[in-house]
């Protein structure tokens, strides 16, 4: 699937241009976090560049992974040196942020989910283990080790969970935004979608806003049902947009010292970890629900299609032999049809000449047109069926 995406989009971009684009996007997200808060303390515990890195690797073919990793390395190393980090620390950070998405992408390919699909549920489990657990554990640990060893911050042991969770949150919030659009779209009424968006924004702003101490000390439980609503009624796309919206408001407000995860107008290490855990749990629960919903929709559509194929001729759309048999049995045994049922069997003379002379495609077009005309010549209560592919 990602190879087809690459043929459609990725191959239009040269390798060097892809590297520069990745570097620019990665650097922009990294600078946003640094601007939001102190990057050495992981700010609000959100590293969106981790999600961008994994998402891009999954969208391009493995033959171009080198350009993506190169763009990540250029942006990370250049950004770290520009912010005054020593070279050895910058190398540790660069290694962690390059190895993390690569490990996750390799695991996903090995486990049969090379495109990072979030549905069905078994695919989301693979995405979660590879992208949200294994990758951040490796990459976050390498970055944290660079902080402890290269920067000499030996008392930063309590920061290790924040390093890992920051990458996990970044993957959960950003990567699905890049990956989910190829999934099935569940269309709902525009009014319901607009209502959900307004209510979700309002409740999230209230929970994480500046509306007094009552809201600042309240846990953001009312947000969870709204995320479930988005997943149940709008599937993967709705879940991704809802999680992204909630995460941005929560992170921004906590960085500004507002909401249930800020203490005395500031975000501490403990409250940042609590915010990260809330976002991870909320996102995972929402995506699991969306995967279950879309899996159910897929199964329902397959069952409907199989039922239709069992009773309908695929070429002409007419009822098939089984439908005709059922129809005749019902009419012959029905008390409302005491006079019996009339049956007319028609065949197409010299149809083999059309198939042999003009090809089977032309023959199919003839059958479709004959079926259309015959349907127009009977009453609504009558039945036109195709018994089989015969010719004379």
Describe the structure in your own words.
With 392 residues, the protein is an all-alpha fold. α2 packs antiparallel against α3 and α10 (223-255) runs antiparallel to α11 (269-311). The chain is elongated and about 95 Å long. Residues 1-11 and 212-216 have low confidence and may be disordered. Helices cover 69% and strands 0% of the residues.
Taking the sheet with the most strands, its summary is: none
- The percentage helix is 55-70%
Number of strands: 0
Give the terminus-to-terminus CA distance: 44 Å
What is the residue-averaged pLDDT? 80
Catalogue the unreliable spans: 1-11, 212-216
Q: Tags for this entry?
A:
69% helix, 0% strand, disordered N terminus, mainly alpha, 14 helices, elongated, 392 residues
Concise summary:
This protein has 392 residues and is an all-alpha fold. The protein contains 14 helices and no strands.
Question: Any chance you could write out the topology, listing elements then pairs?
Answer:
Blueprint: H1 2-8, H2 15-36, H3 48-59, H4 65-82, H5 87-110, H6 121-150, H7 160-179, H8 190-208, H9 213-216, H10 223-255, H11 269-311, H12 321-333, H13 351-358, H14 360-375
């Amino acid at each position: 699937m990602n190879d087809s995406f690459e043929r459609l989009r990725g191959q239009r971009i040269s390798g060097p241009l892809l590297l520069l684009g990745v570097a620019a996007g990665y650097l922009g997200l990294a600078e946003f976090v640094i601007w939001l808060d102190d990057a050495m303390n992981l700010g609000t515990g959100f590293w969106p560049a981790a999600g961008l890195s994994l998402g891009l690797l999954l969208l391009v073919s493995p033959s171009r992974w080198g350009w993506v990793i190169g763009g990540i390395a250029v942006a990370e190393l250049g950004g770290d040196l520009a912010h005054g980090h020593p070279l050895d620390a910058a190398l540790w950070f660069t290694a962690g942020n390059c190895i993390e998405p690569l490990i996750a992408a390799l695991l996903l390919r090995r486990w049969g989910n090379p495109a990072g699909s979030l549905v069905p549920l078994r695919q989301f489990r693979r995405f979660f283990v590879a992208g949200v657990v294994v990758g951040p554990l490796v990459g976050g640990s390498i970055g944290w080790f660079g902080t402890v060893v290269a920067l000499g911050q030996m008392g930063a042991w309590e920061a290790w969970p924040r390093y890992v969770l920051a990458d996990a949150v970044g993957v959960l919030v950003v990567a699905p935004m890049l990956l989910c659009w190829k999934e099935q779209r569940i269309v709902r009424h525009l009014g319901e979608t607009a209502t959900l968006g307004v209510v979700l924004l309002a409740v999230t702003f209230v929970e994480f806003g500046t509306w007094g101490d009552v809201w600042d000390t309240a846990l953001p439980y009312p947000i969870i049902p709204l995320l479930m609503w988005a997943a149940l009624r709008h599937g993967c796309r709705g879940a991704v947009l809802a999680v992204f919206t909630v995460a941005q408001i929560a992170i921004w407000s906590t960085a500004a010292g507002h909401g249930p995860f800020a203490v005395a107008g500031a975000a501490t290490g403990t409250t940042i970890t609590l915010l990260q855990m809330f976002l991870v749990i909320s996102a995972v629960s929402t995506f699991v629900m969306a995967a279950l919903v879309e899996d159910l929709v897929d199964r329902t559509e397959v069952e409907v299609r199989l039922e239709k194929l069992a009773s309908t001729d695929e070429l002409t759309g007419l009822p098939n032999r089984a439908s005709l048999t059922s129809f005749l049995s019902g009419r012959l045994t029905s008390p409302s049809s005491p006079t019996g049922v009339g049956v007319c069997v028609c065949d197409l003379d010299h149809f083999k000449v059309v198939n042999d002379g003009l090809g089977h495609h032309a023959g199919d077009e003839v059958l479709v047109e004959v079926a259309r005309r015959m349907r127009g010549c009977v009453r609504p209560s009558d039945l036109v069926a195709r018994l089989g592919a015969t010719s004379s």
